[in-house]
Design goal:
By secondary structure, this protein is an all-beta fold. It is 0% helix and 51% strand. Strand 9 and strand 10 form a beta hairpin.
Length: 117
């Protein structure tokens, strides 16, 4: 049974930091590209950051470049999203995604991040 379980969200003040974690099980984690997406109220889900299976390559949405860092630990089957200098517009539900082609695409349930003073 495939599972992606996110943790680390919550309420943070503008300018603060959080680290999200996503623990995977039920599939060969080291073979999958991993991504973080987010969905704000009333908006479509959007890609935040992606890391390839080996961890050697990453890409980021323009709106988080220089503030967020994605990383992974294949031994722990975990992907992380370090978020610095958070802004109110970063408020959203953040989703972990695992992808290995069209038919192998999995989602976590999501975790809420609220940036507010």
């Amino acid at each position: 049974q495939v599972q992606l379980v996110e943790s680390g969200g919550g309420l943070v003040q503008p300018g603060g930091s959080l680290r999200l974690s996503c623990v995977a099980s039920g599939f060969t984690f080291s073979s999958y590209a991993m991504s973080w997406y987010r969905q704000a109220p009333g908006k479509e889900r959007e890609l935040v950051a992606r890391i390839i299976s080996t961890g050697d390559g990453t890409n980021y949405a323009d709106f988080v470049k220089g503030r967020f860092t994605i990383s992974r630990d294949n031994a722990k089957k975990t992907v992380y999203l370090r978020m610095n200098d958070l802004k109110p517009e970063d408020t959203a539900v953040y989703y972990c995604n695992a992808n290995h082609g069209v038919l192998m695409n999995y989602w976590g349930k999501g975790i809420l991040v609220t940036v507010s003073s």
